[in-house]
Structure formats: structure tokens, C-alpha cells
Design brief:
With 347 residues, the chain is of the alpha/beta class. The protein has 11 helices and 13 strands. The chain has an 8-stranded parallel beta sheet. Helix 1 packs across helix 2 (48-65) and helix 3 runs parallel beside helix 4 (122-131). The two termini are 12 Å apart. Bound molecules: N-carbamoyl-L-aspartate and zinc ion. N-carbamoyl-L-aspartate (NCD) binds at residues 14, 40, 108-110, 138, 220-221, 249, 251, 265-266.
Length: 347
């Protein structure tokens, strides 16, 4: 059995910088045509100039490791309390950025400069709504008193819904949705709302993270939830609904920073995302929807054409080996282990 689809894109990717960028970029470039690159560097990408410079460092890394891929990084700007509306509007108008990223302060890796109160960024959000610039949100509240498993649902209720009522013209992507609450919210809101889903949240639940020993390589944010939530995500991803598309949230960290007494959040799944997704969609009886999810719905939302190249995935009798760990300096970045045998390969 094999299927051919338009070459996929990744609408949520962490490529980092410097040695890490050089080490991991080929894992994405080998399969994806484009990726929306997250701005949570240290310091974050908060200006158009920083976005342009970061984009050219990524392009140089592609040139050095996989020039024939034609991989194109699409850039985001990191929203802070002091972002200036005019700069966002100009950066979008000149094509420097495709979207703006909202991290609630303290929500995840390198989010200390994130937004502390949405009121402070309302002028920017109003300008974005007016100029049709997409807001990508890390949808978790960060108050210490909210349980980590409830943070997404609470965000929808206390932040996202009020924001969308105030600014219905703002186009919002709920990134890496991890709960039934998230997909239910998208399903109930026809206009100006979409969601990305990650590879790992379609494959693991919180038992994978915590039962039989703690598995730091499954620790990511938002944290994996109960199986019932994973099933809701699979249903959404395989539904063919145009509002759901792939954002891998591939987020490389070195092995020592994952396997630590305070381990970093992030799953590095870029290299095996497409074979994993083929397995998920096959199991759901929905292989015919994989192209919409991975290759069509994302460009459609952003008003871009799909890629012209194509990708063929083939099912084999033998088990597809995990990707090799990636060497960075004298360290390793471990690939996502999907916790089940995968029989698909990209040919
Ligand atoms: C991401 C990272 O490492 O940058 N980590 C993660 O667990 N997903 C940040 C993010 O997207 O939340
Ligand atoms: Zn992310």
C-alpha cells in the first residue's frame, strides 16, 4: 500500500539557533516544503529586523545541510507587552512575517518575555484584526493556582473567548490543541478560528509520560492529557475539516536537558512525523484525509498555494526504525519514540 500527497508543511516548528539550528534543520527540510518558525529564541524574535536575520540564518543552515530541499522558513514575531502595532503591520505587509505569536508570560520554554496582560497588547491586536494578520496562540493560562492539566480549558474560557468576542475579526490559530475542550471550541466557532495539532499529541496520552517510570522525552507543553482527549484530537485531525492542520511543535532539546531533575519541555518529532501520521490516519481509517491535514488546510488558512512537489509514503512489512539521534556539539537530541511499531516509510 502507498499514498501520494502534496508535499506537507509544518505550521509550528522550533528550529532554535546556532549549532542546534544547523544540526536539526535537515530533519524538517527533508520532508516539509515550508515551516512556520517559532520566535522563542533567547532573546526572542521581537522585531522585523530580528525576524529577517533569523530567517537568513535558517536559509544558510538549509544551504549547508540540504540545499536541494528548497525548504522555506516562514517567520513569526514574538508578541510582548511593548510590541508596537505599526511595526507588526509593516513587517506583515512587506512579507517578513506571516503571523504573530502570543505566549502568555511563563507558559512554556523561553516565554518569560511573553504577554502579562492582554489589555496591554489590545492596540496591536486591533491593528492585526484590521490588517488581517494571523495571531497564533499558545493557549494555556499560567496562574500558579490552575492545575497544569486544566490550563488549556481555562485559557479558552477566560482569555480566548473574551478576546474573540471583543475582536471577532481577528484570525486566531489555537496552537497545539491537546484537549476535547479545544477541538469542541473550534468546532463551535465557524469564523476566523483554526487549530494546529502535533504529531505526538495524536499518539501519546499522559500514561505514556507517567506510567511505569517517568519518560522525560514525552514531556512537552501543553502536557499530554487523558486518552479521551487524544481520541478527540485524532477525530478532529482525520475529519477533513479545513480548520485543523499540522503543526508538529517539533522542539529539540539536548538529551541532558531533557533527562534532568528539571527537564525541558519539548518533543523532537520532525524526522518521523510523516511516517507517524500515516500510521495514525491509517488506524483511523482516514488515510485519504492525511493530505488535507498535512498539506492543504494550512496553506488554505494562510492564503498560500499548496506545495507543487509531492511525497509518497509506503507501508512495509518490516518495522521502520526510529530516526537516528542528532548530534549537537558533544550532545544528542533524541527523536520522538511513537511508542508503537511504525510500518510506514517516506520514499
Ligand atoms: C516548546 C519549546 O521547547 O520551545 N516546548 C514544548 O514543549 N512545546 C515551546 C512550546 O511550543 O510550548
Ligand atoms: Zn511550540
Amino acid at each position: 500500500m502507498q499514498i501520494t500527497l502534496k508535499q506537507p508543511d509544518d505550521w509550528h516548528l522550533h528550529l532554535r539557533d546556532d549549532a542546534m539550528l544547523k544540526a536539526v534543520v535537515a530533519s524538517s527540510a527533508q520532508h516539509f516544503g515550508r515551516a512556520l518558525v517559532m520566535p522563542n529564541l533567547v532573546p526572542p524574535v521581537t522585531t522585523a529586523q530580528a525576524a529577517r536575520e533569523y530567517q537568513s540564518r535558517i536559509e544558510q543552515a538549509v544551504q549547508a545541510s540540504l540545499p536541494e530541499s528548497g525548504f522555506k522558513p516562514l517567520m513569526t514575531l514574538y508578541l510582548t507587552d511593548t510590541t508596537v502595532a505599526d511595526e507588526v503591520v509593516q513587517a506583515a505587509a512587506e512579507g517578513t512575517i506571516l503571523a504573530v505569536k502570543l505566549y502568555p508570560a511563563g507558559a512554556t520554554t523561553n516565554s518569560a518575555s511573553g504577554v502579562t496582560d492582554l489589555k496591554k497588547v489590545m492596540p496591536v491586536l486591533e491593528a492585526m484584526a484590521h490588517h488581517d494578520i494571523v495571531l497564533c496562540v499558545h493557549g494555556e493560562v499560567t496562574h500558579a493556582d490552575v492545575d497544569i492539566f486544566d490550563r488549556e480549558a481555562r485559557f479558552i474560557e477566560t482569555v480566548l473567548e473574551p478576546l474573540r468576542r471583543e475582536l471577532p475579526e481577528l484570525r486566531v490559530v489555537m496552537e497545539h490543541v491537546t484537549t476535547r475542550d479545544g477541538v469542541d471550541y473550534v468546532a463551535a466557532n465557524e469564523r476566523n478560528l483554526a487549530a494546529t495539532l502535533t504529531t505526538h499529541h495524536l499518539m501519546i496520552n499522559r500514561n505514556h509520560l507517567l506510567v511505569g517510570g517517568i519518560r522525560p522525552h514525552y514531556y512537552c507543553l501543553p502536557i499530554a492529557k487523558r486518552e479521551e482527549h487524544r481520541l478527540a484530537l485524532v477525530k478532529a485531525a482525520t475529519s477533513g475539516d479545513q480548520r485543523y492542520f499540522l503543526g508538529t511543535d517539533s522542539a529539540p532539546h539536548t538529551r541532558s536537558s531533557k533527562e534532568s531533575d528539571c527537564g525541558c519541555a519539548g518533543v523532537f518529532n520532525a524526522a518521523n512525523t510523516m511516517v507517524c501520521l500515516a500510521a495514525v490516519f491509517e488506524e483511523a481509517g482516514a488515510l485519504d484525509q492525511l493530505e488535507a491535514f498535512a498539506s492543504l488546510n494550512g496553506p488554505n488558512w494562510y492564503g498560500l498555494p499548496p506545495n507543487s512537489a509531492s511525497m509518497t509514503l509506503r507501508k512495509s512489512d518490516s518495522v521502520t526504525p526510529l530516526p537516528q539521534p542528532v548530534a549537537v556539539d558533544d550532545e544528542w537530541v533524541m527523536p520522538f519514540d511513537p511508542a508503537r511499531p511504525i510500518h510506514w516509510e517516506v520514499i
